[in-house]
Amino acid sequence: MQARRERAKEAVRAQRAQQPQRRRWKRWVVLLLLLLLLLMRCECDEPVEGAADAGLGGATDVGVVVGDAGPPDAAASRPARRPRRAKVHLVARERPAFGKEAPEPDTWLPAFRLQVAARAPRLARCFEGAERPGALRWSAQLDPGLGLVSDQTFEPVLQGAGLSAARRACLAKVMAEPGYALEGGEGVARVSMVIEF
Predict the structure, then answer these.
(1) Less Cβ around it within 10 Å: N or C end of the chain?
(2) What are phi and psi of 185, to 5 degrees?
(3) Residue 6's pLDDT band (boundaries 50, 70, 90)?
(4) Cis amide bond preceding 133, omega within 30
(5) What order of strands is seen across the sheet that includes strand 189-196?
(6) Per-residue confidence band for 118, with pLDDT thresholds at 50, 70 and 90
(7) pTM to 2 decimals?
(8) How far apart are CA 32 and CA 39, in angstroms?
(9) DSSP reduced 3-state for 88
C-alpha cells in the first residue's frame, strides 16, 4: 500500500510539473491567433497618417506655412444647408358637380316589412314540433310592382337547427303566397330578413 501511495504522489507531482508548460503553450497559441487576426484586418495598402513624422518610413513632402492664419472662417465651421425647394403655388379649381345623387330610399320597404310580420301566425305553424328555438335568414328576389317573390333561400343563423324539406316547403309557400301589395317599386330587388322561431 505504501509503495502505491508513493507512485501516486510521484504521478501527481509529474502532472503538476507539466501543467505550467501546457499553460505556456496555450498562451502562445492564443497570442499567435490574436496576432493573425490583427494582421488580417490590417489594411496595409493605405498610408498611415503621420508615418513620416513618426519615423515609420515613406518619404512625403510636407509644406509648413508660418504666419498668422487669421480668424477661422465661420462658413467653413457650419454644416452645409440643404438647397431650398422652389415654392409651388397651387391654384384652386372648381370641380364639376357630381352627376349622380344618392338614391332615394325605397318607399315600399316599410309596407313589405309589415306584410311579412302579418304572416307570423302562418309561419309559426311551419315550426310546430320544433325541438328548440332558433333563427334563420330568408332572402329572395322581389318584384315590388307585381308583388311576386322568387329564388328563395333559407339559411340557419349561427348554430340554429337545419330545416327539413317539409318545413322548407311550408316556409316558401307562406312567404310567397299571397303576393305582396306594394306601391312605388320598379325593377327586381333582393330582400333579406331574419326569422326567429
Answers:
(1) N
(2) -105, 140
(3) very high
(4) no
(5) 148-156, 135-143, 189-196
(6) confident
(7) 0.44
(8) 11
(9) coil
